[in-house]
Amino acid sequence: MDFLSVDAKNPDILGEIVPEVKQKNQIGYLNCTVVNKGPESVVQWTKSPTVDGGNTILLSEDDTIVYQGSNKGINEDSGLQKYDVQSRTNGRKITYMLVIRYLAEEDAGDYCCTIKIQGVEWTDWPNKIGKLTVQIAPQILPSINSVYELDIGSNLQLVCEAHGIPSPNITWKREDDQELSMGGFQTRGAQLNLTDIQKNDRGNYICVADNNVKPPDDFKVEVVVFFPPACRPVQSTVGQAQNRRFNAKLECIVAGFPQPSMRWVKKTESGKRTEITDDDKYDITKQFSSQLQNDEFWYTLLVKNVQAKDYTNYYCVGNNRYGVGETVIILYGLYSLLIRCMK
Fold first, then answer.
1. What is the tens place of the pLDDT at every residue in 77-90?
2. What pTM value is reported for the model?
3. Is the separation of the CB atoms in 320 and 260 below 8 Å?
């Protein structure tokens, strides 16, 4: 029976054992209140077998721990044992509180409080089950790679699996907070499908597993897309006065994978193109910026001591095995432009 009046003489367990929910490394408490316990009876706490099998583990008798596990469950740092029983008496009622320290995932399960009565068949011994749930912070399983290299038009399926109690919720998003190719800024579920991949799909994708047990876990996947060079100017026109020992800076960003080779080309007075080399007249440098993606590169052409013959078109040209890309930057004279505006 669930309740036995204090007038009854037979030992019994009052009420139900309240389930306990705690996080890993915390302390769990299960309370079993018995009534009419006499000298012929012993209250036992046991750990029931899990769904994976195993044996019932006897933990305590009355307020004495009888657990015979490894080192009797004593923690090396604190010196406290894994299990403890604390009892308190209120008239004919005695509450036996099972204390479980240093909670781990394997501590979760059913704990049985049983009144062992001398001379009574074990099938008739009163018993109640107390359930302990141990919450585990999410941990993403190593089921996917951290880098994928793909051709344009390819498809990619990413599956992010995570363990935790309760079962974690999984979301995917881009690290740069840009919109996903399928729409929206994040998608729920373990699976992320990228179809007909284009160069804008390149970048880092973050899988986040969260079950409200801190800390959440995350895993970054870099999607690298092979594509021909794409060049863009920082400024498409640059003005500078002539014959005043002024320099002009032309800047170009080149994207592509594999990393493109890059060259600067100048349009001559005859209309032909000639490649520029790093010399006394020109200074060619490659810069780095945290604002660029991994496959973007910033190049600078410094035209020294600008003269009238320097006013022309300059081409930033990138090349890799997937193709060639270029953009044009026009260098013009500030003085001549001022004269035209005054006329």
1. 777 899 999 999 99
2. 0.73
3. yes
pLDDT tier at 207 (50, 70, 90 boundaries)?
A: very high
Burial 157-187 (b: 16+ CB within 10 A, else e): ebebbbbbbeebbbbbbbeeeeebeeeeeee
Q: Which two tokens stand for residue 60?
A: 């305590």
Contacts of 212 (CB under 8 A, 6+ apart): none
Cβ(315)–Cβ(223) below 8 Å: no
Choice among 41-55, 92-106, 319-333 with the minimum mean pLDDT = 41-55
Query: Strand 296-303 vs strand 323-333: parallel, antiparallel, or unpaired?
Result: unpaired
**Cα 299 to the center of its chain, rounded Å:** 34
CB 204 within 8 A of CB 220: yes
Tokens of 43: 């209250």
What's the confidence (pLDDT) of residue 70? 66
The rounded mean pLDDT for the chain is: 91
Contact 199, 292 (CB under 8 A): no
Residue burial 239-250, b: 16+ Cβ < 10 Å; e: rest: bbebeeeeebeb
Give the per-residue pLDDT at 291. Answer: 82
* Four-CA torsion 116, 122, 126, 129, nearest 10 degrees: 100
Beta strand 127-140 pairing with 20-23: parallel
Find, among 183, 186, 182, the residue nearest to 170 by Cα. 186
- Contact in structure between 60 and 32 (CB atoms under 8 Å): no
